[in-house]
Amino acid sequence: MLTVYHYLGLSAILFALGTYGVLTRRNAIVIFMCIELMLNAVNLTFISLSSYLNNLDGQIFVFFVMSVAAAEAAVGLALMIAFFRNKESVEVEDFNLLKW
Hints:
Elements: H1 4-24, H2 28-53, H3 57-87
Helix pairs in contact: 1-2, 2-3
């Protein structure tokens, strides 16, 4: 039987993988995917603790986090498409060219 500790351990592993991806990757789309992985790890923590404590507050908070994640993905991908049309690259080093 899976306990809350199993879910928290899985969440910690997913969050660590997402953090590693954000810190080591150079492609902006991969960095956005790693940020989404980190958000899903936090959502898993909220859901597991909400279920363990028999409280719905964590599940309600997950709904808001998912809404923010969807908006972040839409705006981030729109920025990536606009940048790719101008520079034909989505490397993070090339974003320095956007400064005034």
